[in-house]
Automatic annotation (TrEMBL), chain A:
Acetylation keyword on record: no
EC number: 2.7.13.3
Pfam families found in the cross-reference section: HATPase_c
Enzyme class: transferase
InterPro entries reported in the protein's UniProt record: 2C_sensor_his_kinase, HATPase_C_sf, HATPase_dom, His_kinase_dom
PROSITE patterns (alphabetical): HIS_KIN
Protein name: histidine kinase
Organism: Cellvibrio zantedeschiae
Catalysed transformations (reactions): ATP + protein L-histidine = ADP + protein N-phospho-L-histidine
Source taxonomy: Bacteria, Pseudomonadati, Pseudomonadota, Gammaproteobacteria, Cellvibrionales
UniProtKB keywords: ATP-binding, Kinase, Nucleotide-binding, Transferase
From TrEMBL, chain B:
InterPro entries from the UniProt entry: CheY-like_superfamily, Sig_transdc_resp-reg_receiver, ST_Response_Regulator, TPR-like_helical_dom_sf, TPR_rpt
Modified residues (4-aspartylphosphate): D60
Record PANTHER family: TWO-COMPONENT RESPONSE REGULATOR (PTHR43228), TWO-COMPONENT RESPONSE REGULATOR ARR22 (PTHR43228:SF1)
Native organism: Cellvibrio zantedeschiae
Protein name (Swiss-Prot/TrEMBL): Response regulatory domain-containing protein
Lineage top rank: taxon: Bacteria
UniProt repeat feature TPR, residue ranges: 446-479
Domain called Response regulatory: residue spans: 10-129
Keyword terms, alphabetized: Phosphoprotein, TPR repeat
Length: 230, 545
């Protein structure tokens, strides 16, 4: 607020336009859903085009949300608003959000979570993280995704597994998603993981702090992402 | 599927974009919702809500002109009406709900972020209705004020650790506070807080402490919440209440100012900030806050003519201190008061009030001819009325005084004093026009203020002495003794803080004010002249900057 320096605050401009873009994209996604509903694909090529449109739009959307969240985290406009959440609700909401995407890509998603499992976290921020990883996994997995959650000594653990080629070696190292400039060296900044890491760190109990883990020991044979929330 | 629970339901969609209304309406129809209405504006939404009961209201936050979605909710929840219990889902493109919700007292049942898909909406509605059904007995008990029953039901829900246990914990805490079971409530909150810091539980703790009269502990909890979550506006409000109860109006103003900086859209908070700023004689703060309150009032069910009038008063008072600073406020206030009859009913008393304030505002901006015209318009109506309220006659005295019509105004005051000689309550209201108060209560109050102020002064605690005398200026603006005491306390403070120019300005403004109202024959006229000399000496000793 009240920035006195006369120079253009680029991050602010960026954040405002990201906000606008997100609104337009919302309309675009809805229109796209309407079009697909009214003109169901006639052949495989159609279906494929639809899938690409759907996926890319979803990806832009989740990236924009992330950018906005990162901007806000950075400017101290957002703090994790931590309260009790029903884990199954948060997970199924993200699945519903990506329903069309998963359908067009013919991905079979399994959700495994005790209906009564609760955790203490910011459901918007965590939902954003899950959405982002889901959208990303939808790209790399062949046909299966598994989203699950359980209680562990380190808190509630949310796991997203796929049957794709797995995370590349250099990403398995935890330092990839810490915010050093070096993480850009690989060509991709792994913004999603950086965001996930940020969100995890914002969750603290009296004695513990949240964290994320990546490995390639997915029960489906591909990559495995874990988010721990104390 | 033959007995689809949605079949009997009625839904309302509010969004200014047609394509969005169509999309949502299609989604709801696909779920099997029996009837779906859709409207583009808040006005139409409220009109529909006045004549029809909806089970579901899907409302966009940003509706262009008129009310926002949150303000529509505010109207629906503020007073009992057909749609007090409808499921209200607020839709927005904003992914961070705390930014929008921070400003308001009512929470929607759910908050949906665009883009909305049929799947997310369907899922959310299903969940909400499930929860409604599961918690229906508790809500029924709350509605019927059977609080003991509500407590039992909540405790049972907690024991069986259902998915609604979390919601029940919050309800239980509030009910226990309501029942006066403070220790039980404290235990509940303490158990939660032993595991982790949660702002609502800390807030509950603060409330429990406050209700038990332990305001110091309550204050500590609240300060901790504000540190932990600066967006928790309820904590600011409660803290402001505590400070007001303690008569620490400066502290109250500071906290409210912080809350308003975070969330400028809350009309109630702006109203209170205006009042406390006025009380603290911080007219700039008051004028700013009232101006916002008036503006926000356009779309709010909390609008009140009182704050339109207060805005004018703040402008008029400010003009007495600093014409330049006041001029934009005076200009705005002229517009605001001219619209009072339009907005609050074209009856004679609202017209008179509007003219009298207009007259004072014109006086404040130096437009005497127009001030006199407005006064004449007011007097015409007053003379045609059989009786005129005390409040309006007080306003009339003020308008006459601004125009320098001393004799006329004194005549009215004398008449008022005679008429209400035996009515302590009314006399208290008249005191704001008098040099020395006439009501027993205010006499005692002024004596007390003087006593406190002087004891601070003697202890060389000048800043508290200043606060003490300042606090009385709005209630007794004509009281010369209090103002002279203020000047003297300020002089003491200047000696302690020689670089503080603000004090000097304050002193000069106070003296200017006295100069305008003090009669030559006043008992304290000599003291006034002495203080004037002293002030001149201080001002000339100060190096020019």
């Amino acid at each position: 607020m009240g920035r006195e320096d006369p120079e253009l605050d680029f991050s602010f401009v960026l954040a405002s336009s990201v906000h606008d873009m997100k609104n337009s994209l919302g309309m675009l996604l809805n229109t796209l859903a309407d079009v697909m509903h009214e003109y169901p694909p006639q052949n495989d090529a159609h279906a494929k085009s639809y899938a690409v449109l759907e996926y890319e739009a979803a990806r832009i959307n989740s990236e924009l949300i992330q950018l906005l969240s990162l901007y806000r985290l950075d400017h101290d406009k957002v703090r994790a608003h931590i309260d009790e959440c029903i884990v199954a609700d948060v997970l199924s909401e993200q699945v519903a959000r990506n329903y069309a995407l998963l359908q067009t890509r013919a991905i079979d998603l399994v959700l495994e979570c005790d209906e009564a499992l609760t955790g203490y976290f910011d459901c918007d921020l965590v939902g954003g993280v899950i959405n982002n990883i889901l959208v990303n996994c939808a790209r790399y997995s062949k046909s299966k995704l598994k989203l699950s959650a359980e209680k562990t000594p380190e808190g509630v653990c949310i796991t997203i597994e796929d049957d794709g080629p797995g995370y590349p070696e250099h990403m398995l190292n935890a330092s990839t998603f810490s915010e050093t400039k070096g993480s850009f060296a690989g060509g991709r900044p792994h913004l999603g993981l950086m965001f996930a890491n940020r969100v995890a760190l914002m969750h603290k109990s009296k004695s513990q702090q949240g964290f994320i883990r990546l490995n390639n020991e997915s029960s489906l044979g591909g990559g495995c992402f874990k988010l721990f929330l104390p | 599927m033959s007995d689809n629970p949605y079949a009997k339901m009625q839904a309302l969609i509010v969004d200014d974009f047609e394509s969005f209304r169509i999309t949502l309406s299609k989604m709801l129809q696909e779920f099997g919702v029996g009837s779906v209405d859709s409207v583009p504006s808040s006005n139409e939404a409220l009109r529909y809500c006045n004549s029809k009961v909806y089970d579901i209201i899907l409302c966009d936050q940003n509706l262009g002109k008129g009310k926002t979605g949150q303000q529509v909710l505010e109207v629906l929840r503020h007073k009992p009406n057909l749609n007090s219990d409808s499921l209200f889902l607020l839709v927005s493109a904003e992914s961070n709900k705390s930014i929008i919700m921070a400003a308001y007292d009512y929470e929607p049942d759910a908050y949906l972020t665009k883009p909305i898909t049929g799947q997310t909406l369907g899922q959310r509605l299903e969940r909400l209705f499930k929860q409604r059904i599961a918690l229906a007995p508790i809500y029924k008990a709350l509605k019927e004020r059977q609080l003991d029953v509500a407590v039992e039901l909540c405790e049972a829900e907690l024991k069986s650790a259902t998915r609604y246990a979390g919601s029940c914990q919050k309800i239980l805490g509030r009910v226990l506070l309501d029942l006066g079971e403070y220790e039980k409530a404290e235990n509940l909150y303490r158990n939660i807080l032993d595991a982790r810091q949660l702002d609502w539980a800390m807030l509950g703790m603060a409330q429990a402490k406050k209700l038990q009269g332990d305001t110091l502990s309550a204050q500590q909890w609240l300060e901790e919440i504000i540190q932990f979550n600066p967006l928790c506006l309820k904590a600011y409000d409660l803290l402001a209440d505590i400070l007001a109860e303690r008569a620490d109006y400066q502290g109250q103003q500071k906290i409210l100012q912080q809350a308003v900086d975070i969330s400028p859209l809350s009309i109630l908070r702006q109203q209170v900030l205006g009042d406390v700023g006025f009380k603290n004689n911080d007219l700039l703060t008051a004028a700013n806050a009232y101006r916002k309150a008036v503006k926000l009032g356009e779309n709010s069910c909390h609008d009140d003519v009182k704050f339109h009038e207060s805005f004018a008063h703040a402008g008029i008072q400010l003009a007495k201190l600093d014409k330049n600073l006041a001029s934009p406020f005076v200009r705005d206030a002229l517009k605001v008061v001219s619209e009072i009859p339009l907005r609050f009913g074209k009856n004679n008393s609202s017209k008179v009030s509007s003219y009298l304030l207009e007259s004072q505002l014109f006086s404040a901006s130096g437009e005497e001819r127009r001030a006199a015209d407005s006064l004449i318009s007011a007097q015409k109506i007053i003379n045609s009325e059989e009786s005129v309220s005390l409040e309006l006659r007080i306003e009339l005295v003020r308008a006459l005084r601004e125009l320098g019509k001393k004799e006329e105004s004194e005549k009215i005051i004398a008449a008022l004093l005679e008429e209400y000689a035996d009515d302590e309550d009314q006399l208290q209201k008249i005191d704001c026009l008098l040099d020395e108060p006439c009501s027993a209560k205010n006499k005692a109050l002024v004596a007390q203020i003087n006593k406190n102020g002087i004891s601070y002064y003697e202890a060389k605690d000048f800043s508290r002495a200043v606060d003490c005398f300042t606090s009385a200026l709005q209630d007794f603006p004509q009281h010369i003794g209090l103002r002279l005491n203020l000047v003297q306390a300020l002089m003491g403070q200047v000696k302690q803080e020689p670089g503080n120019n603000q004090l000097l300005t304050n002193m000069q403004q106070t003296m200017d004010y006295i100069r305008k109202i003090i009669p030559d024959k006043h008992a304290q006229y000599r003291r006034f002249r002495q203080l004037e000399d002293m002030l001149r000496a201080i001002a000339s000793a100060k190096p020019a900057d």
